[in-house]
Amino acid sequence: MINDKKAQLIRQLHDRLYEYYGDLGCPLLHDTPFQLLVAVLLSAQCKDDRVNMVTPELFKRFPDARAMSKADAETVGKIIQSLGLWRNKAENIVKLAQKLTDDFNGTVPQSMEALTSLPGIGRKSANVVLGNAFNIPGFPVDTHVQRLMKFFDLASEKDSPEKIEDLVCKRLPPEYWSNFSHLLITHGRRICIARRMQCSQCVIHELCAHGRKVAQANAQ
Q1: Which residues pair with 197 in a beta bridge?
Q2: Which of 188, 94, 169, 87 is nearest to 131 (CA)?
Q3: Confidence check: pLDDT of 220 > 70
Q4: 205 or 217: which leads in pLDDT
Q5: Which domains are present in the chain?
């Protein structure tokens, strides 16, 4: 594991955010790995609370992969049509369920390679499922994580989610990866809000390069 200045900062950020927020679970409602997988797919470009409004009915009708594999996209679409990109998501959910049924005996696989072979599932989504459904270490990088890591001067504008994931995973013990992602996402939603950053209320402002610049500007 790398132990450089970036590693020290990452650990300080983790510890400070953990002290403030504690252990954070996945906010998407689910009872099984399959339901989490579907909820994560639905959450793309959509707020979690809106996803949680449609999944109870969806999972009541189609609780597992085998049931969902027999559904048609139009029926699924009617249930989730309040969400953005619902047509594509409905098609991907049915195709995903069919692939799980045909190739994985109806169960959700527990590897990055297998998960990312599923329709609509990328690396970030796979990491969410691995960490929250199977307790397999992963560091999901969403837009909040990307934005905050740039504010911390730990990443640049051109850095990909994969590069940011690699940066963190080489410097933080695996048992902290999943919750650190939750901590950053929660902080990005509650305090470090895009275009409405509340630096004066931020518990990590002195660790944040952007926060220090704001403080210096306000002091002048």
Answers
A1: 192
A2: 169
A3: no
A4: 205
A5: 5-24+140-219 (1.10.1670.10), 33-133 (1.10.340.30)
> Interior CA angle at 156 toward 151 and 158, to 5°?
135
Beta-carbon-side half-sphere exposure of residue 48 (alpha carbons within 13 Å): 12
Query: Is 163 a residue of the active site?
Result: no
Q: What is the mean pLDDT of the chain?
A: 95
- pLDDT of residue 171 exceeding 80: yes
Contact 164, 170 (CB under 8 A): no
Q: Which of 64, 102, 142, 166 is catalytic?
A: 142
**Residue 69 above 70 pLDDT?**
yes
For the whole model, what pTM was predicted? 0.92
Identified catalytic residue from 124, 150, 153, 163: 124
Ranges of beta strands (E only) in the chain are 192-193, 196-197
Give yes or no: 60 in active site: no
